[in-house]
Every structure is written in structure tokens, then in C-alpha cells.
Amino acid sequence: MSTRVNPELRNELIKFGIGDWNACYHCGTCTAICPLSENGFLFPRKKIRLMQMGLQDQLTASVEPWLCYYCGDCTETCPRDANPGELMMSLRRYLTSVYDWTGLSKKFYTSKVWEIAFILVFAALVTAFFLVLLPSMGYHFTKELTAEGGVKVNSFAPPDLVEWLDWGMAITVACLLVSNILRMYYNIVWKSGKTTVSLWVHIREFWLLIFNFGVQPKFSKCSNRNYWGAHWLLMSGYVIMFILIVVYLPWFQTEKIHAWWHPQRSLGYYATFGLLFGLSFAFIGRLRKSSVKFRFSHVSDWLFIVMLTLTVVTGILVHIFRINGMASATYVCYIAHIAVLVPMILIEVPFSKWSHLAYRPFAAYFQQLQKFAVPR
Amino acid sequence: MDMKNHPQTGLFFHYTVTSNGNHIDYKELASYVAGMDPSVKVWTCAEVPCTEAHIREQIGSENLERLILAGEMPGLVKPLFTKCMALEKKDPANVSIVSFSEYGIRKGETDRAKQLLACALNEIPFEIAAMPEEVPVNPATLVIGGGITGIQAALEIAYANFPVYLLEKTGTIGGKMATFDKTFPTLDCAACILTPKMVEVNQQPNIRLMTYSEVTGVSGVPGDYKVKVLKKARKVNVNTCIGCGTCAEKCPASVPSEFDAGTTLRKAIYMPFPQAVPNKYMVDADSCIYLKTGKCKACVKACPVPNCINLDEQDETVEINVGNIIVATGYKPFDAKRVPQYGFGKFPNVVTSLEFERLLNASGPTGGNIHLRSVDKKGNPVFTTDAPQPERIAIVHCVGSRDKNYNKYCSRVCCMYSLKFAHLILDKISDAEVYEYFIDMRSFGKGYEEFYERIREENVNIIRGKTAKVEESKGKLVIRGEDILKAEVIEQEVDMVVLSVGLEPCDETARLAEMLKIPQSEGGWFEESNYNTSSTGTFRGGIFIAGACQGPKDIPDCVAQGSAAAARAIRSVMKGTIPLDVIELPLAQIEKRIKELQPVI
User: Which domain, by its residues, includes A64?
Assistant: First the structure.
């Protein structure tokens, strides 16, 4: 197989935030200092080499960028200030856009205008849905309170209808992600054509995918385990909230006020705590630039945590206002909550930073498949 | 000042305005020229655009016969002006340029710019007007630093029959080279080359050796420098001490030996090393028990020579007059503790190259046998011959060099001395496994590449890839790095790790630079006046730099620079006069010269 060099790769990659990779003189410090780099799957240096040489095919077939969890040790010890940690981060952005067949990912990563316009349009659509469409269908605001003194939120936003829309959004996002993961699988496992992996290996190693999705074992091997802890709290909080909202919305969004220990409330409280803890960790870190991981923030990094924080804060406010019978405030916050949530999910999960929820566990799975690959 | 009658002249300032403003105050220059000759038409590129039409109009309307283009890079626009002159039927040869950047005029040096303009307007070459005044020179030369460079420079001057002061900060001359075992690439015994030269210094009647002394102030002009020297109290009379060592035997205080890079202990009264010059004892005031508590004097009681040891002797300051000064203060090794991932100071068998040099040396702590560092009864790490010999040794290149976290420059000597280490290890332990981890192998000198080839054939594992960290596992040291050429991460178990530390300017460099009024270049080294053509010269007359204080270099280069600096000092001493510094020439002096020269030229 011939090796094709793309001299334009540099100009392509710079758009995703990659800095001066020509500074690298290939001493190998980054690879050796990294606790996650292992023989057969070496990074960051080897990936920098591919970038320098414009070997686009090999770069897009790399699983390694997803195996890096960005502890920053490489950037701290790099003798050339080449910033390998951020180079790997930029590569992940690039690869996300490579897997995405719609082309939107590239637009969002390389253009603030596109990203913000998309958010505003969907926020407007959601607001119109609540203020125009629902009233026309007979659902109205009511200042009347329930017997317990709570707000009658269900009469304004019927949980059955909202749950249908939830499912619609979830399926759309899932379809996009699955098609992108198939492209990722093709690039990483299939494309080289030199090796093959048996179906049995695919089935046998499938548990790794679930394990990596739930626990992120690789992340915990980074030199600073605090990142893993904060991320796990955030992740578990979000997963619980996601399940509650998509699968159990009629049970979750009630007008009845349960006791605080009731699973409907206590699960919600845990999820809120996890989300707030993880978000403040990221916020404070990125503002203070306290470590290498947080020193270089791309627009997509900020947008993700800002939108998620807005979602969480409006969600908390809905809860407080509802219990205390503050009807107008509840409705306003409810609309704001959904108006942030919908564009966030639609942008972040299939096209942007949050796609890592799928790519990272799949990368761990694909890495394992490659280990058992046999020559064709 | 009066002007010769010149044809109608136009002066054009050409410059670019940078973000931090202009280098030179052009308004001030314009008014200076107007004061000198009001008939000169002055305009700038800001007032009249630099286009053919505008320039021709200017030449035509003012009837200019002669043009002077001044600015940062006026040569760029000269062809345009020449063309305009020709088109206006004037003599195109009458366009001259005054380039400020060519004369290295820095921000705010408006006076120098005025000097150049005055010369150009009067058609007198600046080099002739600025020919510096020659002043008589004091025949004595001061050499600061008694390492191999300083010794070489002092000997060259002394053999030319001129007096030299050789100043040394420590108690003996010899410097870093005296601690080395072998030199690369010839594998000569370092002491065998150096000690005869050290003895020569002591016996040369033209050399006045001042050890344990420091420069505290410099004043004067080229040819006549007054240098204040702090002579620290040695507390042992150099003239009567017989070097018997009885005092050191009785001395109860022990501290790490500087000469042995801390691998052995010395007493508070000590001779730095057996071949020290002067071969006399001295007292370290910081560790002497008597000087700290007022009680002890064990050395005084033991000394067989009456009144030889005087523990109450005080430091004194003397002033010496010299015509030339040669700075040869050398370097200090990079502190390996600054790279925590290599574990120096934490793991006893991670050693620096200077420690390893002593370990290899027959006069070192183990008599030249390589042994692991062990812990003595008091818990202090020591080298003894009782400890086992290492079977595997790793040598880590580029510690503190070529690294933007520490020093970004290449220290030049580490690759070669590391290769030398590999050879010497196999020389002493023939079945040892030696691993060298390098980024790029810089074997640049005569015979160096051949030396590298030779070591490569000697069963040494030379691996491309910088060591990322050194860890300890089951009592062994583990080197973690990437083998770039094989593309795999390696975890190599070894018994001993040698860190090839880089070179840094001495701590005193900044203080000396301030006293001598010579600048430091990037990295803190002394700055030479011209990198290619005057590597030993400085921007001040009569002050020269030589050896590693100018930048990292190996022994042959240091010796060459020592001789070169000596030659430059001898040049003025033999001639009897030395030019004053051009840089200090005032504007009034140039104006006076122009007046004197006008009838001549």
C-alpha cells in the first residue's frame, strides 16, 4: 500500500486549535512520561510525527488520541514547549469532525458564528413551542396551586408529550452517533486491510465497552486521580438525570411533592450534587488555569461547561420554585431549562465535545480488538 | 559649527514606525542638522511619500545637488533616489546613505546618530573622525579565574615577559579540569596535562598568584584599570606552611569536599587536593569550630611550624592597577535536583557527571573503582570499595540542556563526556552493560565522530530517546524512556544512573558583568563583541573574555580562547598604547575632529 502525504494537513489541523507541533524534536519524553501510553499504542510523539509528515490516512486511523485523558504531564515535561497534551486534545476535535459525515462538527469546531447561531435558533424554536404551539393545543399556564401548595407544572408542560419529544431527540442523536461510530470503526479497525478481527473477539471483548463507559478505568490511571473522581461524579450524575428524564419522565415530573428521601427526589439530589461538583471543578480550574489540563481552553470547552451549568441551575430553580408554589418563576425557568438543554444535546453529543461519551469507550474497545487482530 | 561650502543638500529620513515607536528621535536630529547648516533641506518619509514623483518634485523645486539618505535601512531606497537624481539631470553619484542599523545604534542613542549625520554632511568618514585616542597602557594584566583557560592565558602573557595577576576564587588553581579523570577524545589523563601547567604558574616569576581572592570593584579606563581585590583570610601562612597535614589530622570538623564533588569529606583546615597550587593548607571559616564557638584551636596546637596558623587573620582588600583584564570564570554544573523526575538526591545511585568523574578518578573516593553508593553507620550516603560494583549503568544525556524548562542551549560537552564515560566504565568493569540515552549525538570536533564510532563498536547500547523519568522498583533503578527508532517504550532496570548535567554561567557572572560594564548574552554568559571575528573581545577596550564563561565549550576550545585573549592583551602591552572605547566618544569630540579634519580631507 502506498503512503499518501497530504501537505495541506497542517492548514486543516490548525483550525482545530493545534499549535506549533513543528517545535517537537522527537525526544520521546512525552510518550515515556505518559502513564497510559503502551507499546503498540504509543502517543503523543508518534501522533505528532504523523501530523508533521502530513500522513492523514494514518492519523484518521489512529485510536490513540482517544486513549489520552489529558493529565498534562507531557506538556509539563516537554523540553520544547510543543504542548503535546493540547495537541492530543486538538486531534480529538479533528477526529470528531472526521467521523461526522454531516460536516456540522467541523463547522461548529471551526466557527463560533455557526455554533452560536445554531444554539440561538434552537433556543428560539423551543421557546416558540412553549409559548405558541402548546397554548394553541390547549395547554396553558395556571397560577392555581395543587393541594400541597406546589405548582401545576403538568398542566403547562404535559409529561407525556414532552417525553415523546425526549425520545425523538434521543433517537436522532443516537442515530447520528451510531453512524459516526461505524465510520470510526471502519477507519480504525477495518480500513488498513492488513489485519482482521474475528467475530468471537468482538463478542468476547464487548464487556470492555460497558466497563469503560461506566468507570473510565484508563482515566483513573492518570497521574492525578482527582480529575477522574470529579469527572465520575459529573458523569454518573448526568447519566442518572438522563435516564430519569428520557425513560421515566411521567414519574419524575410530577405535581405531587414527595418526601426528600423518596427516590424521585433523592436520585435527583445526587445527580444535582454530582453535576455541580464536577462543573465547579472544571469552572474553577479553567478560570484559574490551575493545571496544564485547564490552561488552554478552546471555545468548545467553555461552551460545553457554560451550557451544562445553565441547564443544571435552571433545573434546580424549577424544583425550588415548584415546591414553593411560585408559578410564574417556575414556568420561566422551565422554558429556559429546555431552551438551553435542547441545543446543548443537539450540538454537543453528536458533533462536539460531548461525543467523547461514545468515542472514548468505543476507542478502548477498538484498541482491544486491534490487540487480537490477526494478519489477513 | 562652521561648514565648508557644500552644494545644495537634501537630507531625507527613511524609517518605519514600529509598535513601540521609533528607535531614534528624528525631530531632534532634524533640529540638530538645522542648527549645523540651515541651508540643508530636511524631510522625512512621513512628510513626503517615498515615490518617484514626490522625490523628483522635491529635487527639482529645491534644486538639490546632493542627497543624504539617513535612517534604519536607507539602502533600501537608495536606487530610487539615484534614479530620480538622474531623471532630474543631477549627478546620480551624489547620493550617500547613513545607516543607523549598520552602526548598531540602539534605542535612545540619538547622540551617535548625530555624530554620523555630522560626518556625512561634512563628507568625512565616521571611522576616521571617530578614530579613538590612544592612551598609554599599564603593562600588567589581570586574569580572573584560575581554571585551564586562566592558566593558559596567564602563562602566555608571562612567557612574553609581561607581568600577570592570576586571581582565583578558591584555594587552588586548576578549576574543573583538575577534577576530571580523562579528556575526550584522546583519553589523556587530565591531571597529567594540567598539573605541570599549574606548577609552571607557581614557578613563573612574572605571575603573581592570588588564590582565595575575589574582585569587588573595577574602575578606570582601558589601559588603566583599578581593581579592588578581596583577599580572603587563608589563616595559614603560605610562606611558612610545609604542607605536612598534621593540622588536618587533628581537626575535628568534617564537611563535604568541593573538589570531590561532595563524594568525600574534608576537614575545616584542608588542602583542596594533593596537587593543589599553592600546595598549602587553608581554613574554611564557615566550618571551623573555633571561628564558630571560640573554642578548639586543635590545628594550632598540632602545627609543627611556629605562628604558621593564625585563626584570627582577617580578610583584606587590596587595589591593583592593570592595563588589561581577561575574564575566565568558567561555568558551574547544572543542579540536577531541579529535574525532580530523575530522582537525584532521592535515589543514592543517581549520580551527576561530576560525581562520576571523581568515582572514575584514581584519586577519588574509591581509588578509581566504580562502586555503588551505600549508606554509612551514621546514615550518610558514601562511596566505599566495600559496596558492590554496578552491573548495569545508564547514562542520561541533556540533563538541563536543550530543554526550555531549564536551559534551551546545548551544553556542547555532555555528549562527548558521556561517550567517554561509557568507554571508561567498560575499561574498569569489562562485563558491565552500559546504556546511553540521547536526543541527538553531537560529536562535532576533530576526532569526535571517530570517537563516537569507536564507542559504538565497544558493546555500548546507544539508544535514541530522552529519558523521561527514573524510578525505583525492587531495589533497582528503572529508566523509562521511548526508543524512538524502535518506537517502543522502554523500562530498563539498572544499578546506577549517571546524569550528564549541562553547563551554566557561574553565580558571579552577573555581578562581574556589572562591575566590568560588559553585557551578558542570552543564557547569562558574557557577551562577545563579535560572534565570528572577536569571540574573546568585549565592548570595552582592554577587557577580554575566554573559556566557558563566554559559552559552554570543551577543554581544547577553552585553551585556544585563553591563548587568543592573551594575544590580544599582549598586543596593546607591546605597542605601549591602547585605544579608548569608541562607544564612550562624546558628540563634542566628533565635532571637534570634523573641524580639524576639514582642511585635510
Answer: 9-99
